[in-house]
Amino acid sequence: MTRYLVRRTGVLLVVLLGIVAVTFGLLRVAPGDPARLIAGPDAPPETVMALRHELGLDRPMAEQFVLFVGQVVRGDLGQSFQTGRPVLEEIGWRYVNTGILALTAVGLASLAGIAAGMLAARYPYSAVDSAIMSGALAGVSAPVFWLGLLLMWLFAVKLRWLPTSGAGSLRHLILPAITLGAALTATIARMTRSSLLEVIEEDYIRTARAYGVAERSILLRHALRNAFLPILTVIGLQLGYSLAGAVLTESVFAWPGMGRLIAGAIFTRDYPVVQAGLLVVAVTFAAINFAVDVLYAWLDPRIRYD
Amino acid sequence: MAAQRSRPKLKGLSFLLAIVATLTVAGWGAASPATVTVAVGADAVRLDPPDMTDNPSETVLRHIMDGLVEFDEQLQIRPALAERWEFQNGGKDVVFYLRKGVRFHDGTPFDAAAVKANFDRILAGGLRRTSLYEPYIQSVEAKDTYTVVFHLKFPFGAFLHHLAHGAGLIQSPSNIRRWGDKVGQHPVGTGPFKFVEWVPGDHITLEANKQYWKGAPKFDRLVFRVVPEDATRVFQLETGEADVITFLPPSEVPRLRANRDLDIRVADSLRVIYVGFNVLRKPFDDVRVRQAVNYAIDKELIVSQVLGGMASVSDSPMAPGVNGYCKTGGYPYDPERARQLLKEAGYPQGLEVSLWAPQGRYLKDYETAIAIQAMLQQVGIRVRLQTMEWATYLRNIFDVPKEQAQYQMYMLGWAPSTGDADWVMRPLLSSQSFPPGDNASYYGNPKVDQLIQEGMRTSDPDARARIYCEAQKQVVGDAPWAFLHVVKQVVGVRASLQGVKVLPIEIVLVKDASKK
């Protein structure tokens, strides 16, 4: 395992350097001048040029890159072009916010998705099954914008149970978490169902049934444990995607998170924020994958790494 | 077994009910009546007047700080921290007599030294709005405690308008010393509200300044909440979570007008939308072709059908609300005249040109471009329409040397933040301002250049009005742009909140408001 860990860490570092290089390059190649955007369209040219100098944009690209990598290595991610605040300060608590939202969404989705998937697998090809699977199809296909606004209209505007948007309390979390988790719930339900149906065909299940073990116990104790690996993979991947891709949910619900920060920074060409933001997301993604792999080994001792 | 299976389900259901009940009992978090919440589309960037260039920052700052002078709703200049002023030495010295007994929120007294400290900082350079003052202010002198003199390099016609600009808000000098270049996160002024906290991306909270020199505000807290999604802001207005929302989507106006709890305000702005021609390149190096395009566009139809009435037809490079505007008559819709002019210019068979337009930056910008495409088609001008993302768009227009400028026609908007003609004519239409300046049409007329200089160096209002009127008529005749329309701004207010002011410079002021 140790050798595996060392090798994985090495690969991870190379990947991260690659990500840093690619985002740096793409941002610089993309047309659009941060100084012009910050100064505003009605700024005189002297202001734009002074800003370009202040931000170091008039230096050669190679020099900018070396400076940037040097900063990252020292743990300094620079300052936002827009606000002048340190990038770490900008990202820090937004990262926490997105984490809370993504974890809640994935948690809810896992509970609901696994439950629904099990129910569907318990009565395959029945009315219950097709109802759940149609629901899942709808869940996967519902656009975040539409679903988010619909939930908001129902629970905030009409029923007045929950606030429309913002952050700061559990009540603020419910609607965005459901919105973000909807598609995921559906994916997990489908994966759970098919994975369970596959396992249920196995001999040991038939044996257990023959011994008169209760059906519920068969599903929970025997089948689910063995069907769990692919489900876990999906959950792990989705957690990563949610962290990176909560942009729409975050902007519909005015949830101050990473997704919105990075998307906004791309439009204003706030290079330091985009670079650091993507780096943080990439590290998180890698860490989640890593955790999933370790969990794999723990759940299925047959999987070996060295 | 059936009973066994249903038990956990019931448990789940009751758990859900419990959650819902708790939330309902916990109450619809209605803000206390003493709080006013404004939902804005974008967060402030930095709360340091001469170092900010964005609207959300200015809106917040205008509640925390005062300037020497201020705009009223008609953009007339009114006294604020200066009680009165005099122009001396032929307009080269401007003497301000300051209000006495005013203190900044941190206790620092407001006086001539404070004003001098603010402007010395600006003139020292390095701030985003230094260029708004540096070209004409020689020095600032604190003559005595409550008298401050601005020594100008020449009598500058738009001086008071520049002081009323958001960049001219006065902040506490001791606070600037305390925070240095981080002062933009800790604003302290003399205004009706004191800064409390800023959670970036979420909200900015202010509290009433009970010692405000104009009298304490009529509510305790003011919260600016960042809600980027238009539809969400509208919902917040409907639920009452927000008392005021800015940039209300015009398509929602008819529906919301039916709600008696809401007051939907459609106000004038200074934002002119135009199509600029690249006058250096064929075919728009010929004034007749440019005029033909102007005649071929039915602006009334665009305003009524594309913009749903949320704009007015424009006949000048500046909006009627700008100080110095005068009616020119513009170009009425006359496709016959357009065809005639094209024929005279040597294009009897029509011609083909490209039009660049942004998408989503201004109200129905791309839709407007499509309408223009169809209208020009009617007179024989085939238009290739092209759109691009905003940052790319700006770069392609302003940051290419003139030999390489690829565009023939481009759509842009302009709103002079000083409210004065000088800030339209000088940056957009003077031959001194070719890109990287803002004159992307490369329009230059020696007569207009001279009028711009005269207008800038004249402080007599009547003389300025005459000068700018002549300049506008000349520009409209030369037609470096197709003059389209002036957009309106739509602001939603809860009917229970009274006294909200919508300035044409796209600033909403709630400082004088009160809740019923």
UniProtKB/TrEMBL annotation, chain A:
The keyword Transmembrane helix applies. It is a multi-pass membrane protein. It is found in: Cell membrane. It comes from Carboxydichorda subterranea. This is ABC transporter permease. The chain crosses the membrane at residues 12-30, 100-120, 132-157, 169-189, 227-248, 276-299. Pfam families: BPD_transp_1 (PF00528), BPD_transp_1_N (PF19300). The keyword Transferase does not apply.
UniProtKB/TrEMBL annotation, chain B:
Keywords: Signal, Transport. Residues 77-432 form the Solute-binding protein family domain. The keyword Signal applies. Residues 1-26 form the signal peptide. It holds the Pfam family SBP_bac_5. InterPro entries: Peptide/Ni-bd (IPR030678), SBP_5 (IPR039424), SBP_5_dom (IPR000914). Gene3D superfamilies: Dipeptide-binding Protein, Domain 1 (3.90.76.10), Dipeptide-binding Protein, Domain 3 (3.10.105.10), Periplasmic binding protein-like II (3.40.190.10). Belongs to the bacterial solute-binding protein 5 family. PANTHER family: OLIGOPEPTIDE-BINDING PROTEIN APPA, PERIPLASMIC BINDING COMPONENT OF ABC TRANSPORTER. This is Glutathione ABC transporter substrate-binding protein. The lineage of its organism: Bacteria, Bacillati, Bacillota, Limnochordia, Limnochordales.
